[in-house]
Amino acid sequence: MTQSQNRKPIRKAVFPVAGLGTRFLPATKAIPKEMLPVIDRPLIQYAVDEAREAGIEQLIFVTGRGKTAIVEHFDMAFELETTMAGRDKSLEVLEPTRIQPGNLVTVRQQVPLGLGHAIWCARAIVGDEPFAIFLPDELMIGSPGCMKQMVEAYNEVGGNLISVLEVPEDEVSSYGVIAPGKANGALTEVKGLVEKPKREEAPSNLIISGRYILQPEVMRVLESQEKGAGGEIQLTDAMARMIGEQPFHAVTFAGKRYDCGSKIGFVEATLAIALEREDMADEVRAMAQRLLG
Ligand code: G1P
After folding, report:
1. Same domain, yes or no: 177 and 191
2. Is the Cβ atom of 195 under 6 angstroms away from ligand 1?
3. Looking at CB atoms within 10 Å, which of 137, 213, 249, 284 has the fewest?
4. Count of CB atoms within 10 A of residue 107's CB?
5. 210 C-alpha vs ligand 1 centroid, how far in Å?
6. Does ligand 1 come within 6 angstroms of the Cβ of 175?
């Protein structure tokens, strides 16, 4: 692969959002878990904001049944906007939900066969260019954002990149884990990848934290892939097969990460973000002290 092919800009991002969200039932019976709000923005909005900050133009949602609220959220709400304008209300709050016409695409994952399969469902839209992946459960707060930090690293080294962070050793078996090679600042070479290893077999405690920049060849690997951990078609296994064929690096994200796939992580994100927001911090701090008092 030549240098210039290696550095095609990252214009497209895939958001796998077909999951059933069973951990949040009954809240997620009729609304997608990606629409659960952390304060006043649904989870998916945080991921989309992060994508746009990184220069991504086209959003590809891999959806399933019962997920239409996500697409509605990024559509123009004519009645709402007309009513608000008629009442002289500012429409600025809706700004992050506006997508350039043509830049939101959905594909369906008909059967939940795993994350690798979900990504593969987007192959025709991704086409022959490198692309980003966001797992919206992983809420990444930083300045610059996680994907922007990754795009900056990509502009230097090209190839494939994943965001990683350290977790306590007893948590590694819930994640994809890297075997690290040489490190240089925030960049670490990836020598191997294993999905949900047993604690004693994990090659490190550096886990994949839900942000990826991948070369389109991964789609070909996914095409013929067998099931891996948990009987699912795993993205991690497909990526592992690309190591050695193409550059592969991990980026240690400088920022905060909240695991909004769990209830505790969701509560933590809500509190932490409220404590950072100018419009709420003082009141929330006083309230927390009262509650703990
Ligand atoms: C997925 C990935 C895993 C990654 C994790 C991050 O797992 O397969 O490699 O570490 O997301 O949240 P899941 O949480 O879907 O089981």
Report:
1. yes
2. yes
3. 284
4. 18
5. 7
6. yes
Cβ–Cβ < 8 Å for 18, 118: yes
Alpha helices in 64-107 (DSSP H): 68-73, 78-86
Same domain, 252 and 289: no
Q: Which residue's C-alpha comes closest to atom 9 of ligand 1?
A: 176
Q: Are residues 141 and 283 in the same domain?
A: no
- The pTM assigned to this predicted structure is 0.95
Domain co-membership, 225 together with 196: yes
Same domain, 29 and 79: yes
Three-state DSSP class for residue 282: helix
pLDDT by residue, tens only, the chain of 293 residues = 445 445 889 999 999 999 888 999 999 999 999 999 999 999 999 999 999 999 999 999 999 998 999 999 999 999 999 999 899 888 999 999 999 999 999 999 999 999 999 999 999 999 999 999 999 999 999 999 999 999 999 999 999 999 999 999 999 999 999 999 999 999 999 999 999 999 999 999 999 999 999 999 999 999 988 888 989 999 999 999 999 999 999 999 989 999 999 999 999 999 999 999 999 999 999 999 999 98
* Residues 161 and 33 reside in one and the same domain: yes
Decide whether any atom of ligand 1 lies within 6 Å of the 145 Cβ: no
Question: How far is Cα 270 from Cα 75, in angstroms, rounded to an integer?
Answer: 25
Quick check: CB of 119 below 6 Å from ligand 1? no
- Phi and psi of 151, rounded to 5°? -65, -40
Q: How many domains does the chain have?
A: 2
Is the link from the previous residue into 101 a cis peptide, with omega within 30 of 0? no
